[in-house]
Amino acid sequence: MPEGPSIVILREETARFVGQPVREVSGNSRLDQSRLLGQTVRSMRSYGKQFLIEFDAFSLRVHFLLFGSYRIDELKESGTPRLSLVFPNGALHLYACSVQYLDQPLEVLYDWRTDVMSDIWDPALARKKLRARPNLLACDALLDQELFAGSGNIIKNEVLFRIRVHPLSTVGALPPAKLRELVQQVRVYSFQFLEWKKAFELKKHWLAHTRSTCPRCHIPLVRAHLGRSDRRSFFCERCQKRYGAVPDSQSQSPEE
Questions:
Q1: Taking the model in full, what pTM does it have?
Q2: Half-sphere exposure of 48 (CA within 13 A, CB side)
Q3: How far apart are CA 184 and CA 63, in angstroms?
Q4: Distance between CA 161 and CA 127 in Å, rounded?
Q5: What domains can be seen in the chain, in order of their start residue?
Q6: In sequence order, which ranges of the chain are alpha helices (DSSP H)?
């Protein structure tokens, strides 16, 4: 599933379509595709993991789910696009994704302060929301789009390793300084993710995600599906401190 920085890259790559009318529409989406014909793109925007194409009276929301992808000015060798939009200066092809119309203004639908890549990202708001949910596990908090829109599994694993917090820590048990560090590093790492992704070198900077050995302790990292999200976590039992007690129902399930 693409994380926020990858959607920012898509937004930047499609900026040249802003101001362009939709000349052709096709794909296997069940949307009323005729609604898009002749519409002029007013903006390309990103919110967390969502890509938003804004027109005069409505917007198109794209979510790439687990296996979605896109192509610009070319088709994939196999597979039918969910939706293809052809403009006078190029084409955007969307695959294996969810697409839907939004009839309300985007400013009404989205709180941009929660988007970790947004210019108006509000870390104080994130801390306030976290303090209101003291029993939330750190591994779940970093995947909660109401808290950190755009943060995904890579960001989760890398941030928790970077700040030395065990993924099964409870948010309410984190010292105030550690809570501030968590919120800060989600933002910092997201922009580093963006920089490394553009340079095609993201994976070489991973310290924990999909790795087998802790670069600090030189012992095997634990791999487990954790929390309510049941997503893969990679962490070190020695240098990542566990804060707070974890209910048995949310304990780790190690990978074989």
A1: 0.91
A2: 24
A3: 26
A4: 19
A5: 4-109 (3.20.190.10), 119-254 (1.10.8.50)
A6: 4-13, 106-109, 123-131, 138-141, 153-162, 176-198
187 contacts: CB under 8 Å, gap ≥ 6: 116, 121, 123
State the residue for tokens 């303090």: 131
Residues 6 or more apart in contact with residue 38 via CB below 8 angstroms: 21, 22
For the chain, 256 residues long, give each residue's pLDDT as a single digit of tens.
789 999 999 999 999 999 999 999 999 999 999 999 999 999 999 999 999 999 999 999 999 998 899 999 999 988 899 999 999 999 999 999 999 999 999 999 999 999 999 999 999 999 999 999 999 999 999 999 999 999 999 999 999 999 999 999 999 999 999 999 999 999 999 999 999 999 999 999 999 999 999 999 999 999 999 999 899 999 999 999 999 976 554 555 555 4
Instruction: Tell me if 116 sits within 8 A of 54, measured CB to CB.
Output: no
Per-residue burial over 84-101, b if 16 or more Cβ lie within 10 Å, else e, is bbbbeeebbbbbebebee
Q: Which of 87, 78, 97 is nearest to 20 (CA)?
A: 87
